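Q: What structure does this chain adopt?
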Amino acid sequence: MANGSFQVSAQELSTILRHDYKPVIFLINNGGYTIERGYLGKTEPYNDIANWAYADLPKAFCPDTSAQSFVVKTSGDLQNALSAPNDTMIFVESIMDPYDAPGAITSSSNKGAELDYGPRGPQGRDNLQLRPATYEGGRPVPIR
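A:
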């Protein structure tokens, strides 16, 4: 789940804790609405959202919980989170670049702008949309 959609359903984390369910929840924290950034709002402030302390939420909702929370910024952080015993809820907040998006997302949002605005629409101007990653030497070059 991405952080934008999580903010409209965060109360369900409280339900999960109340029932002592033990899911592993991955939250992608990319600072906003990636699909909308891909459409026409790459740098528009309306696609930015408040940055919550997501990994702290299990303890905020249920101070006595044994849930484990992780903030993942590196592959080492991810390995640490993945090696945690799964005997309680695990909440993993993965910090991502706001412009990092799978090719399918950028492609579909770019096509949506083409459908809405036509070939001479505003999406033709530079830096309004996320664009699918290009590759150099077999590795993706970050979208900027």
